[in-house]
Amino acid sequence: GGQGHGQSETPPPFPSQMVSAVAQLGKAEEEVDALHAQLEARGVNSRGTQDVFGRKFAVPVDGEHKSLCLGPVLFGRGMLKQPHMRAFWAATFGFFCTFFAVFAPAALITWIKESQAQGGLGLTAEELSTAGAAAVGTTVGMRFLTGPLCDKYGARKTMAFLLLTALPGLVVLATAQGADQFTAGRALIGLSLASFVTCQVWCSQMFTKSIVGTVNATAGGWGNLGGGVTLLVMPMVMEGMLQLTGDDRNGQDKAWRLCMLVPGCLCLVATLAVITGRDLPDGNYRELERSGAKQKGSGAKTFAIAASNLNTWWLMIGYAFCFGVELTMNNKSVIYFYEYYDVSKSLAGVLGACFGLMNLFARSWGGMLSDAAMAKFGLRGRLWAYWVVQVAEGFMCLALGLSTVYTPSPSRMRCSPECYTECTDPIFTSRSGDFCVPKYSTDPYAFGDHVTPGDGQNGMFGQYRNEIKYLNRTKTVLYTIISNAAWIKPCASTSIDNPGVGCTNFDATSGLCMSALEELPTDLKKVVVGDYGNDECVRNSGKLVETMVIIVFFSIFVQMAEGLTYGIVPYVSRPALGGVAGMVGAGGNLGAVIGSKAIIANSDYDQGFVVLGMVVLCTSLLFHLLYFPEAGGTLLKKGALGSFSPQLWMPQGDDRGADQLDYSAAEAPSVSRTTSLAPPQSGEDCSEAENGRDVATRM
């Protein structure tokens, strides 16, 4: 018995029951994790994760407390809960209201541009172009400023401020007595459109990177929808106002001014909604800075970081010719349909609204495509998807212009039989001097011997068309309206007060009616008169349906490209997210100024669309210069440029993004904390647990 004395004893075998218990416990933990994953996929914070101040989140979050979900909680009882969904809807609605306010005057432009004798301001095509450019041009500088303001003070406060800036502009516009005041009003309202930057920054700070493309695209798209809704709704509001004020000169003048109350009230409501939100998932900037969790930001430094990154500039140019194209179309589409086609002012508003209404889903499609490409191919997938869609946008813009550019329109006529200006060619054609710009004055007797209307110019009296159906046949009767109000360019049309009578036997040579005037067979207070004698005219060619089909697909690609842009923006520079978002957003408005004032500056809209399409295609080639060292570019693989970084300057020190918190430094107690400053992995979503989730939050 003494052989083992002084030697260590061999431990007894581990009981098999213990091994079995450990295995069962591991299996139970796996089942619990699977249950959590199922609940999180439905938008439930089943782990009970709390913010740095001990408040439980309403949605499942990642290691940085950013929401892992959007779709499951987008609608329903929890859709407005703090902080994530409240921020999403406040950002979306706030941006929607500024878009609505900026383009409300464009929706009513067919009334506002009328002469003062008809209740308008008597605006010329040049003045309309200047005002449209001013509406989107002032936003350029404001968006540059808004990005650093978001990093310094937060997207919430900055958006509330921008919403309030629209109100003085609406007052100036509603009291305008001429073109200068009208332009000033539109310029002031345009400042509020920088709210797009706050919308994208706020959402990027609230939602995890794996779904940020979809989130930003949805919020931005539904915000952009305000441009389509205002073009659709404001003409109806105007018609309602006319019922109250009357449709005479004084009534129309008062009606369009009163319409500005609608966007004003919307902006006030949106301000209240925005200010009740929260800056970041864990709280507002000030309280987080006091707690020590958040680093105090410097607006100037974040702007410098953003401006010194080459990718910021390539994205800025790209956004100039997708969002910039949308703003250009919002400015031009209503007047384009009204002048080119046989439609009333109200119908022109409806047709023009179709471009903006694609935001209901198309921009979200772009974000979804961006996220899907990221999941399948990484960041290079986002870049390729962006380029392909932008190219498709360019081709659709070309198609829109080419569909009518060789057809007579209000801006051009055939050189024969008679033209009083130089004969030229439409763009991209081999024809030799087929077209000319009509020589025209609103006064039928402005030229010539002042005896015969139209002598010395290319004007004509518009006709009212009435169709009579009988015995399965249709008879068309044209009533020529002999009045200055009905004096139009060839191939043009206009809306006038119902004159009551017209001539069915008009002699264009003498300018006389060869029979007694007859009563117009309509009780409408306003009638559309136009050139029905030339079947070649765009308005008589039956191309409206074709144009609308192209417009719809054109708009879809434009909105998708916008969504794809802001699926890439959060990857450019984490410390300067606001600065990058602001500069890229400013590019969109700069593109709108170029589109509205330089490319489609006059009433030759379809030729402008051709040029714009070519510019979009050419600038899309710059997308191949986008390069991220950790991922590559469209043509270059990861690390292909060695140590080169598109971030040309970066300050020394620990510069963190405004949404990067150090929970370990927070003074307030918290149930859930993480010391990780790295973003969650790109593959995470509502059905996956995030890296760095605190073990204390698990069951």
In short:
The chain has 20 helices and 15 strands. The protein has 699 residues and is mainly α.
Q: Per the principal axes of the C-alpha atoms, what is the gross shape?
A: elongated
Largest sheet strand order: 1-3-2
Could you tell me the number of beta strands?
A: 15
Give the mean pLDDT: 87
Compute the number of helices. 20
Fraction of residues in H or I helices: 40-55%
End-to-end distance, in Å?
A: 51 Å
What structural category do the secondary elements indicate? mainly alpha
The parts where pLDDT drops under 50 for at least 5 residues are: 668-685, 687-699
* Content of β-strand: 5-15%
Q: Report on the biggest sheet.
A: 3 strands, antiparallel
* Radius of gyration over C-alpha positions, nearest whole angstrom: 31 Å
Question: Which terms summarize this structure?
Answer:
699 residues, mainly alpha, three-stranded antiparallel beta sheet, two-stranded antiparallel ribbon, 50% helix, 7% strand, disordered C terminus
Task: Describe, in plain words, how this protein is organized in 3D.
- The chain is mainly α and 699 residues long.
- The protein contains 20 helices and 15 strands.
- It has a three-stranded antiparallel sheet with strand order 1-3-2, with no helix packed on it. It has a two-stranded antiparallel ribbon with strand order 4-7.
- It is elongated, with a radius of gyration of 31 Å.
- The chain starts with 15 loop residues before the first helix and ends in a 66-residue tail after the last strand.
- Residues 668-685 and 687-699 have low confidence and may be disordered.
